[in-house]
Amino acid sequence: MNKQHTEYHKDGTVWARGEMENDTPEGYWEWFRKDGTKMRSGYFKAGKQVGEWTTYDRQGKVYKVTQSQE
After folding, report:
1. What separation in angstroms does the CA of 53 have from each of 1, 13, 35, 68?
2. What is the per-residue pLDDT for 10?
3. How far apart are CA 1 and CA 16, in angstroms?
4. Rounded to 5 degrees, what angle do the CA atoms 14, 19, 22 make?
5. Half-sphere exposure in the Cβ direction for 35 (13 Å, CA)
6. pLDDT at 7
7. Where are the alpha helices (DSSP H) in the chain?
8. Which of 51, 56, 46 is nearest to 66 (CA)?
9. In whole angstroms, how large is the CA radius of gyration of the chain?
């Protein structure tokens, strides 16, 4: 069973959040800058990046989309 997981910057703002299964990233994850804007998002399967990963600029617009090498 997956459980929600959140990691924080030193100042207490959210750095990353997603689901963990047996201490391994699983499913959708997203990372944030200290100002709260989304920086990156994508999916994990058994701890490995899969599919498309999106990087966002500081205004929240898509900057780059990459394909995982899975």
Report:
1. 24, 22, 21, 7
2. 96
3. 20
4. 125
5. 6
6. 97
7. none
8. 51
9. 12
| Those residues with Cβ within 8 angstroms of residue 60's Cβ, 6 or more apart along the chain or in another chain | 37, 38
The Cα-based distances of 39 to 3, 22, 56, 57, 60 in angstroms read: 22, 26, 5, 7, 8
* Amino acid occupying residue 66: T
Which residue type sits at 34? K
Q: How far is CA 5 from the centre of its chain?
A: 11
Average pLDDT of the chain to the nearest whole number: 94
- Going by C-alpha positions, the residue among 65, 63, 17 that lies closest to residue 44 is 17
Give the confidence band of 70 by pLDDT, cuts at 50, 70, 90. Answer: low
